[in-house]
Amino acid sequence: MTDELTELLDTAIYKEIAAQAFYIAGQSKTQDPAARALMKELAEQELKHSQWLTNLKEKGLGKQDWRQEKIPNLGLSEYLTGGDTVEGAGLQETLIFAIKREQQAIEFYSQMTAVIRDESAKNLCQRLTDEELKHKLRLETLYDDLFYGED
Question: Would you list the DSSP string of the chain?
């Protein structure tokens, strides 16, 4: 495994663990049961991501059967305001926060893809970008259904 790939995996694992810790801590910062439940679910997803990445680091990438996908972007992160903290946040603010956090991860991995030279690391970055896009789409769809859906 190249140094570049190892560094990418270490960084990605760290980001997932930090996100998990954030969502675990955030559960005690709100009284809203729906917001707590969402943060619990997000923390569990981040744990799964860190375990997947740790497994990749330990066993190597091997032959990856992955194809870049075209994932829709609802674009909510570009115009939603608020969601700057989960302190005292309700479900809507928590969703906005999580959507923006996923957008930051997408931007990080997209930028890394542009600067990484190792082909395996570049492919992993593209896959991580797609994974974050899927998470953002799921959160944006939930937001849209809950707060813009037809009555």
Answer: --HHHHHHHHHHHHHHHHHHHHHHHHGGG---HHHHHHHHHHHHHHHHHHHHHHHHHHH---S------------HHHH----S--TT--HHHHHHHHHHHHHHHHHHHHHHHHH---HHHHHHHHHHHHHHHHHHHHHHHHHHHHHTS--
pTM: 0.85
What's the pLDDT tens digit per position in 96-135?
999 999 999 999 999 998 998 888 888 888 889 998 998 8
Residue ranges covered by each domain of the chain: 3-59+77-147
Q: From residue 4, how far is each of 8, 44, 118, 143, 148 by CA, in Å?
A: 6, 28, 7, 36, 43
For 56-65, write each residue's pLDDT tens digit: 888 877 666 5
Task: Let me know if domain 3-59+77-147 sits in CATH 1.20.1260.10.
Answer: yes
